[in-house]
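B., you asked whether I could sanity-check this one before it goes into the benchmark set. Here's the sequence:
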Amino acid sequence: MDPVQHLTSLRRAPVQQRSAERLVRILDACADLLDEVGYEQLTTRAVADRAQVPIGSVYRFFDNKRALADALAHRNLDRYADRIARRVGEVDGTDWRGAVDACMDEYLTMKRTVPGFTLIDFGVPAPPTDGEPHANHQVADRVAALLAAHLGRPLDDALRRAVLVGVEATDSLLHLAFRTDPAGDEALVKETRTLLHAYFAHTFDRPPEGQDG
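And here's what the prediction gave me:
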């Protein structure tokens, strides 16, 4: 089953199988409608109609469309984390470039195939609420922990900072690539990969601080 019960934007978590399945249908309907009408035109009524559930079922889980879209973004992040964990697990533990490529490739695959992902990948297209971490910080935390474990590196401030810079740079450049071409401009994707390899070399091609080379 989809990992939905821990979503922080839920008013209440489903406790029965039928409720969990209804929640999945609501999130799937939200994703489909985002591709069709965009975030600004999205309504909870339209989501309920598409999911074929009473409007009260949407409000049972979510206060408003912002909370609904936020839940979809968190589901996307969970799915992305699962996908890159599997891909990186297939890469040799000394091949940091292969691990970085796996993270980028899975993002590109989701960008091209997952409904609603173009508009809401890991965060709602609106200013974060007070105390809410930026989506890229959440992505960077997940990726940094995965890379540190796989490559046998300490998960220290230097690694966290490097991965956050890499995530921010990738986010900006790939948004440009998909604005240029709805499928992702391949030349810009290639340049993004080149930039990441060059940037991460200063972190992964030398031993961590305090360790001999």
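One thing to flag: The mean pLDDT is 91. Otherwise nothing jumped out at me.
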